[in-house]
Amino acid sequence: MAPRAKRDNQTEDRALIGWDGIRFTVPGDWNVTGVSADRANGYLKVDSPQTMFLQVKWADPSAARPRTLAGMVTQMLRAVRKQPEPASDSPDLRPTLEAYLKETERRARKQRQQFDCKIRPQTSEAGGERVAVHFTWTGGGVGQGKIWRCTTCRRTVIAQVVGQGKDPVADVAASVFSDMRDHPEGGWTVWGLFDLVMAVPQSFVLRSHKFLSGYIRLEFGDRREGRILAERWGLASIARKKFTIREWLGQMGEAQKHGSEYADVTANGHPAVRATGRVSGLLATLGAVRDSLPSVRPATEYEACAWECDETNKLYVLQTWRPRGASSLMGDLVARCECH
Amino acid sequence: MRVPLGELLQYYAARYLPFVRAKQVPDRGALMGLRPVRNDAITWEENESGEAELSIPYRKDRFAKAVAFLVHLPEARRVQLDEVGTFVWKLCDGSNTVEGIVRAMTKHYKMNRAEVEASVGRYLQMLAERRFIGFYRRGGAQR
Fold first, then answer.
1. How many separate domains does chain B show?
2. pLDDT tens, A293-338?
3. Most buried of A51, A106, A152, B95, CB within 10 angstroms?
């Protein structure tokens, strides 16, 4: 599903947050303040400007790395044969939730607060796709959340909205949980934070991220399909006084390094520059070979697209490296990158 | 914006020593309510490109006079702010709170509020450390 269609359904003051398959909307002034890049045991924290915040934790058994040699061999064979992970037994959500609440209780008691929690009976949600348990607690704040296990992606997710006495925790929790998704749909994973909303193919995993004031960078990789680098700069009006978009792409991106050819195109309704080149030079080629191992198809075909969004005063640069003969992802990436 | 060393030590002592009482650390709301005001001793003007050029006079104490006797020093040193710095500098007139500056910048540059808050906070802290600005709270003392 395209993120644009998703966002069009939301009211103006909602922001889409997407991280590793987890996707939901929050009030527009809420922002991500904590993330983990571990796919097996993920964490996401979104803060409001005041005292409320949202915490999401998830465990993904299919992404966990095997710890024994036998496990590694089994996983490798499964990957070669393209077999799905075997179905594991459905874990009991209640002990996990009780352990989580015990930790919350310990924190409340440290602050000498009375702790009280209510756990509702297990229910089936999303047309039987999820088994969920809702809970609320008070003590050193107010929390409302739920824990669920998705039968499609086999993730166990625990999410809660926490606030202080007068905060509308119940209302916010209801709106956040109503549209929360826990796995990619249509083969694309939506990533959204700090006004950047984009989607990458599901097989790409996050390799690195950088969040600076006015600059966001997300790098994804897939050993077979190559590499994707998405960057977003703020204050485009100031940057553009000194550089054209072509110069920006050449210097800030890697277009110049790869001897690219440039072409003027349109991206999301804005004038854009597209560059195509090839990884050349011994060191760069060896680097591409190393990144692709154990596959023997190094990602040497370079493609980039840069544009300025006047409406949001931001510069977007998308760069991809793919193996020779693989189809280009750039058109889809640009179409799924929301700039305004 | 910067926590004085004494307060910081008191804060850490209170964490480990039960008989020491921690001084209340100002919360985010209180910090956002502070009003930055430019140092009166600093004169400034805008150049053709709209960037502020500050003229900061050197110290006039005995030590500075002794140094000036040995080495030729100009009357003032000049600092040029960039476009965004000038935007914030102009708003440091004592009538705008930090919150107001954050809002104005978010609107003017169409930036994400969290990003603006972090960068404006750091920038104002840097200006305060160099004594280009001070902070006051309406009804409170100047810092």
1. 1
2. 777 788 889 999 999 998 899 999 999 999 988 888 999 999 999 8
3. A51
Chain segment B39-85, per-residue pLDDT in tens: 999 999 999 888 999 999 887 788 888 887 888 877 888 999 999 99
CB of A314 within 8 Å of any CB in chain B?
yes
Minimum Cα–Cα distance from B117: chain A residue: A213
Q: Do the chains contact at B112 and A234, CB–CB below 8 Å?
A: yes
Closest CA in chain A for residue B105: A235
Cross-strand pairs, A137:
A117, A143
Within 8 A of B111 by CB-CB distance, chain A residues are 214, 234-235, 313
8-state DSSP, A31: E
Burial of A24 (0-12, 13-18, 19+ CB in 10 A): buried
| Helix or strand (DSSP H, E) at A252 | helix A245-252
Taking each continuous run of H as one helix and of E as one strand, the counts in chain A are 8, 19
> Does B100 fall in a domain?
yes
Residue with tokens 């939506």: A190
Residues of chain B contacting residue A193, judged by C-beta atoms under 8 Å apart: none
Question: Does residue A40 have a pLDDT over 80?
Answer: no
Query: Quick one: pLDDT band at residue A64, thresholds 50, 70, 90?
Result: low
Q: Please name the member of B83, B113, B115 whose beta carbon is closest to the beta carbon of A214.
A: B115
Where, residue-wise, is CATH 3.40.1000 in chain A?
A: 14-178, 188-335
Domain-located, residue B79:
yes
**In angstroms, rounded to a whole number, what is the distance separating the alpha carbons of residues A318 and A29?**
26
B78 to chain A nearest CA, in Å? Answer: 23
**Residues from chain B contacting residue A235 (CB–CB below 8 Å):** 84, 109, 111
- Nearby residues of A181 by Cβ (< 8 Å), 6 or more positions away: A21, A22, A23, A24
CATH of domain A14-178: 3.40.1000
B83/A contact by beta carbon, under 8 A:
yes
Residue B5 lies in a domain: no
Domain covering A188-335 assigned CATH 1.10.1470 in the classification: no
In 3-state terms, what secondary structure has residue B56? strand
- Give the domain extent around B120: 27-136
3-state secondary structure of A112: coil
Q: Identify the CATH number of the domain in which residue B75 sits.
A: 3.90.930.60
- How would you class A310 by CB atoms within 10 Å of its CB: exposed for 0-12, middle for 13-18, buried for 19 or more? middle
Most distant CA pair in chain B: distance in Å? Answer: 59
Of A33, A49, A214, the CB nearest to B111: A214
Is there a domain that residue B9 lies in? no
